[in-house]
Amino acid sequence: MKLSFPEAKVEWHYDPNIKPQAVGEGTTLVLPSLLHRTLGFGPKDFDLVDGYVKTGIFKRGWSATEEEFLHEFPSPTVALHFNANKMQDYVYGRLKDHVDLFEHNVKPDDIDADYIIDCSGRPKDYSKHSQSAYIPVNAVHVNQCYWDAPKFSHTLTIARPYGWVFGIPLQNRCSIGYLYNSDINTLEEVKEDVKAIFSDFDLTPSEETNSFGFNNYSKNRNFTDRVASNGNASFFLEPLEAMSFGMASTVIDNAINYLQGLVPVEQANMEYVGLVRNVERIIMMHYFAGSKYNTPFWDYAKERGELCMESGKYDPAFCDMIKHAYPAGAFGSAPQTIMDSGQASMDYLHLSNLWWSPSFAQNLDGLGIRSKLEGVLGVNQASSVAAEQTAYRQALRDITDQSDFPTDIIWPTKPE
Ligand SMILES: Cc1cc2nc3c(=O)[nH]c(=O)nc-3n(C[C@H](O)[C@H](O)[C@H](O)COP(=O)(O)OP(=O)(O)OC[C@H]3O[C@@H](n4cnc5c(N)ncnc54)[C@H](O)[C@@H]3O)c2cc1C
């Protein structure tokens, strides 16, 4: 904001008696470059935030195919893992002399300012928010596992019988969080099951744990001509793929565009709705894949995933993305056909900014959902139907090679 409006006077209103949320320690590619551009943050500062590079997201146990894979970032770019509390201290230290700081509890309506970004955290009530109809997890149990040095450089995203587990490697610890549905499973079940992760990844859990429930929600009307909500005050969709900071950055861009007169407030709101829908759909592709587990949680999660993908049929940008996300590793693994053709819609570009085509390609194949999702959306059908028919015709041709094929009868039309 300050960079876009250098003349503006910026005030920070902050209540030190309300603790910020101490989770949220993995990023997409967006945050490191944003931090670099705005604060000069870089590898020299990693020690200040226990930072460690993030090369991608390692996924195991999703879909019955039992594949494990790395959703990797395009080389040489990397994202970031960091200690959430220390990053807040770092940002505060870098900016405190450039803003007027007020340490008190305040409501947006009581602030005398031309424009307000409301980042006051989780809403007290959700009367101005909508709940996600699809996301199947609503609780988390986090364990801190200390180590001398990181053992891997990717985030772990491991499907388990009661949900899924993230693993975030920092310089001195690995944060393990088990996401589950507290209406289906108990914290005790989760505490028992997470032991498998400690053993699989050779981690030693400490006494430091944190368990809480959450809503998955977004604001009905995020932008007015005076206030934009952001962060937890605006939205939260569970942390699969760690997209919250990227979403927050898009909300800031939209607020800046509005303030610069580039978009009307209703367009900013429409783009926000599209952003939430895109992130939700990316998350739900994983549940659509299901997992190798056959449990009440997965019955529920898969059904939600299927419903969400069904809704994708009516979204041309999502259909275009799936249609053109060619298999990872194919020549030109960053398929640009739709971009180069000039047919990419604004909605497609927004989706692509969030998760570009190679991310879709890697996950469609890694999760084993490419042809099933194409079938649901009705895209690329001609080629897959053609492939099925080719296989069928070949099977018919092969019949005559079978040992018990009757050659000693008179065929009206003998298969050859
Ligand atoms: C289990 C879990 C894992 C997550 N993992 C990731 C991840 O890997 N990557 C990712 O991008 N996101 C992740 N997130 C989301 C991430 O944690 C949130 O996006 C982030 O914490 C939101 O921060 P915030 O500043 O909006 O809210 P908060 O951290 O809650 O801060 C709100 C602030 O507002 C202040 N405040 C509140 N009310 C007032 C008032 N009346 N007056 C003055 N000040 C006030 C408080 O003092 C506080 O500092 C995760 C979330 C969860 C639950």
CATH names the topology of the largest domain as: FAD/NAD(P)-binding domain
> Hetero groups bound?
flavin-adenine dinucleotide
- Can you tell me the number of structural domains? 2
Provide the β-strand percentage band.
15-25%
The CATH superfamily of the largest domain is identified as FAD/NAD(P)-binding domain
N-to-C SSE string, H for helix and E for strand:
EHEEEEHEEEEEEEHHEEEEHHHHHHHHH
CATH class of the largest domain: Alpha Beta
- Overall strand count: 16
Tell me the radius of gyration: 25 Å
The number of helices is: 13
Structural class: alpha+beta
Helical percentage? 25-40%
Low-pLDDT segments, ≥5 res = none
CATH architecture of the largest domain: 3-Layer(bba) Sandwich
How would you sum up the major sheet? 7 strands, mixed
Strand numbers in spatial order across the main sheet: 4-3-10-11-12-9-13
User: What is the residue-mean pLDDT, rounded to a whole number?
Assistant: 92
Bulk shape = globular
Terminus-to-terminus distance: 73 Å
Structural summary, described in words:
- The chain is an alpha+beta fold and 416 residues long.
- The chain has 2 domains: 11-259, FAD/NAD(P)-binding domain (3-Layer(bba) Sandwich), CATH 3.50.50.60; 313-403, no CATH class.
- Helices cover 36% and strands 18% of the residues.
- The chain contains 13 helices and 16 strands.
- The protein has helices at 30-39, 84-95, 187-193, 195-200, 244-259, 265-289, 296-312, 316-324, 337-340, 346-354, 357-366, 370-377, 381-398, and strands at 11-14, 52-54, 56-60, 68-72, 79-81, 100-103, 116-118, 129-131, 139-146, 155-160, 163-169, 173-180, 205-213, 217-219, 227-229, 235-236.
- A 7-stranded mixed beta sheet has the order 4-3-10-11-12-9-13.
- β10 (155-160) and β11 form a beta hairpin.
- α6 (265-289) crosses α7 (296-312) and α8 (316-324) crosses α10 (346-354).
- The longest helix has 25 residues, at 265-289.
- It is globular.
- The chain starts with 10 loop residues before the first strand and ends in an 18-residue tail after the last helix.
- The model has no long low-confidence stretch (mean pLDDT 92).
